[in-house]
């Protein structure tokens, strides 16, 4: 892994998995650039002050001008809303759903488009490049609590596969498209509605409990080191339920697609 990643841009790094991932890459001696929303500026500044050499941006404009050797992009930003369409739907449901789909699905597609040509160009020059897109175990195991979050992450999982197949069609080696599928991790993502989802599962004693963040990061980086025979990063990195969902898809649906001639 170390030989493939030198300069990495991590989107959505003001907290949770994104921040923890940025900190780990920084500890490994990588050049790390982090991003967040305007309201995250103070938090990003705090992280930068703690970690010497780490840089932050609010907008993506100018990233490639300042970091022309950027070889890895990690899209991790996401939001999660809890609501019931039939019982007590929120009055601003349309706004919430659009925002959630935009952040979780539209934004990763646009980011991939923004950096695809650059990463492909470096790969043609023999420089190993990577794009990581974060889906979720809920892309494969939807639950009734999150009627927009689950399909948005299923869309990311699907987009990863399509992007990888399109990359294969170019014939260019040395670039990887990696789908990262975390399980339920203890982060602020669902902090504002965790009590509600626990209650729907019969209370905190019966509810599925999140994986500690440090444990997830350790497992993710262990899997990151488990490369293919040629040293390239695996197509999927899934921890816990995320990995199980990816495995079932590959064993079933991918084999059906390839058998039908839909993909090579």
UniProtKB/TrEMBL annotation:
Taxonomic classification: Eukaryota, Fungi, Dikarya, Ascomycota, Pezizomycotina
Record protein name field: Dehydrogenase
Any GO CC annotation of this UniProt entry: membrane
Presence of the UniProt keyword Repeat in the record: no
InterPro entries, per database record: NAD(P)-bd_dom_sf, SDR_fam
Protein's UniProt keywords contain Oxidoreductase: yes
Alphabetical UniProt keywords: Oxidoreductase
Organism this protein belongs to: Podospora anserina (strain S / ATCC MYA-4624 / DSM 980 / FGSC 10383)
A GO term, aspect molecular function: oxidoreductase activity
Family: Belongs to the short-chain dehydrogenases/reductases (SDR) family.
Span of the signal peptide: none
């Amino acid at each position: 892994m170390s030989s493939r990643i030198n300069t990495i841009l991590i989107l959505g790094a003001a907290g949770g998995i994104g921040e923890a991932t940025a900190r780990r890459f920084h500890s490994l001696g990588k050049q790390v650039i982090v991003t967040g929303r305007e309201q995250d500026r103070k938090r990003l500044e705090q992280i930068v002050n703690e970690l010497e050499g780490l840089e932050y941006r609010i907008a993506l404009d100018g990233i490639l001008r300042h970091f022309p050797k950027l070889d890895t992009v990690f899209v991790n930003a996401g939001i999660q809303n809890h609501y019931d369409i039939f019982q007590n739907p929120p009055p601003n449901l349309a706004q919430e759903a659009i925002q959630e789909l935009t952040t979780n699905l539209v934004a990763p597609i646009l980011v991939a488009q923004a950096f695809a040509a650059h990463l492909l160009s470096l790969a043609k020059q023999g420089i190993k490049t990577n794009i990581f897109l974060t889906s979720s175990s809920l892309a494969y195991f939807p639950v009734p609590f999150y009627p927009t979050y689950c399909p948005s992450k299923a869309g990311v999982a699907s987009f990863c596969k399509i992007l990888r197949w399109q990359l294969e069609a170019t014939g260019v080696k040395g670039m990887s498209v990696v789908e990262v599928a975390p399980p339920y991790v203890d982060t602020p993502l669902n902090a504002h509605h965790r009590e509600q989802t626990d209650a729907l599962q019969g209370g905190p004693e019966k509810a599925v409990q999140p994986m500690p963040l440090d444990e997830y990061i350790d497992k993710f980086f262990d899997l990151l080191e488990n490369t293919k025979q040629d040293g390239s990063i695996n197509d999927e990195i899934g921890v816990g339920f995320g990995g199980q969902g990816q495995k079932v898809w590959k064993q079933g649906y991918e084999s059906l697609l390839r058998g039908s001639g839909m993909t090579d």
